[in-house]
């Protein structure tokens, strides 16, 4: 077996950062090099076992990366406010960069593209491997059955403030892409009252909210007399951490470039 991949986690005080650390500590294919927290964080210089108990290793939470520490990949879940610093660190150390920080400005997306000229970069708004597979399936079904009607239904917990979800929109883009056009001009975000019949090529969205549901997405393809439904249900946030770690291990020793989560999945004909 090859040597474990050395992982630095940026945003280690956060919910996702800690889920990634837990996934690394439980993995035989990765090793935690450093758990970076914000300067001034209450966890700075604290031993990892303060949070991870029995899973502890000889690593402390730290506000800086020791130049002598071995690093293959930096995993960032510190959000848009801290992404720039995380990316600068990966560039300085010339190591692979995985980020799940969302809500990035267009300049930050451009900075990721620029960085990909010198290091391998993989950014995804949703690190669930199941959702990556659903995107792939939706694109293929849409391409194979271009005349079938397609609607996308999502349900999330009652605190979610935006609709449709970013993942539902991504699924809409995948369906449109499979049909060889853009989503704009085909998306229907709400139906109410005398809407008239469905237009050909419409991609409809419905957003349901309630309880503590982490996230459910169904892509419905409806033909005459038959219907195909592809559903993904997220049970907890650990799926994003596991997907990010799988991406980090896959990316660690690649050539510089911009990669996608779809590439982490095994290719199929
Ligand atoms: N792609 C996906 O699959 C996926 C899934 C879930 C969430 N997300 C995204 O991931 C991001 C984090 O989500 P979350 O729920 O984990 O949020 P969170 O709990 O608020 O965690 C963010 C953490 O980043 C830390 N941070 C801020 N500046 C930092 C710096 N300069 N250096 C190191 N750490 C720094 C914060 O520290 P303090 O606590 O000290 O302020 C905080 O602990 C968000 O953008 C969220 O939308 C993505």
CATH topology of the largest domain: Rossmann fold
CATH architecture of the largest domain: 3-Layer(aba) Sandwich
Ligands bound here?
A: NADP nicotinamide-adenine-dinucleotide phosphate
The CATH class of the largest domain is Alpha Beta
Structural class based on helices, strands and sheet pairing: alpha/beta
Q: Helical proportion?
A: 25-40%
CATH superfamily of the largest domain: NAD(P)-binding Rossmann-like Domain
What number of structural domains do the residues give? 2
Mean pLDDT: 95
How many β strands by DSSP? 12
What spatial form do the alpha-carbon principal axes imply? elongated
Radius of gyration: 20 Å
Query: In order across it, which strands form the biggest sheet?
Result: 3-2-1-4-5-6-12
Beta strand %: 15-25%
Strand count, sense and barrel status of the largest sheet are: 7 strands, parallel
Q: Compute the separation of the termini in Å.
A: 28 Å
Q: What is the element string, with H for helices and E for strands? A: EHEHEEHEHEHEHEEEEHEH
Number of helices: 8
Low-confidence stretches: none
């Amino acid at each position: 077996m090859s040597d474990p991949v050395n992982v630095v986690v940026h945003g280690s005080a956060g919910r996702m950062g800690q889920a990634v650390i837990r996934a690394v500590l439980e993995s035989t294919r990765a090793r935690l090099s450093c758990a970076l927290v914000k300067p001034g964080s209450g966890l700075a210089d604290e031993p990892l076992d303060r949070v991870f108990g029995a899973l502890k290793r000889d690593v402390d939470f730290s506000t800086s990366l020791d130049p002598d520490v071995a690093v293959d990949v930096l995993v960032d879940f510190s959000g848009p406010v801290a992404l720039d610093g995380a990316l600068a660190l990966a560039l300085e150390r010339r190591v692979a960069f995985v980020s799940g920080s969302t809500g990035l400005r267009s300049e930050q997306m451009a900075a990721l593209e620029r960085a990909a000229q010198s290091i391998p970069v993989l950014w995804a708004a949703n690190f669930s491997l199941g959702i990556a597979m659903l995107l792939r399936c939706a694109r293929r079904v849409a391409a194979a059955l271009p005349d079938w009607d397609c609607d996308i239904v999502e349900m999330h917990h009652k605190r979610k403030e935006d609709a449709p979800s970013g993942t539902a929109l991504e699924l809409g883009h995948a369906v449109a892409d499979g049909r060889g056009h853009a989503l704009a001009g085909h998306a229907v975000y709400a139906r109410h009252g005398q809407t008239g019949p469905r237009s050909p090529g419409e991609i409809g969205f419905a957003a349901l909210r309630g309880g503590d549901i982490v996230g459910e997405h169904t892509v419905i393809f409806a033909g005459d007399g038959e219907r195909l439904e592809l559903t993904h249900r997220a049970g907890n946030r650990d799926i994003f951490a596991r997907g990010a770690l799988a991406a980090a291990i896959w990316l660690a020793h690649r050539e510089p470039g911009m990669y996608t989560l779809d590439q982490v999945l095994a290719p199929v004909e």
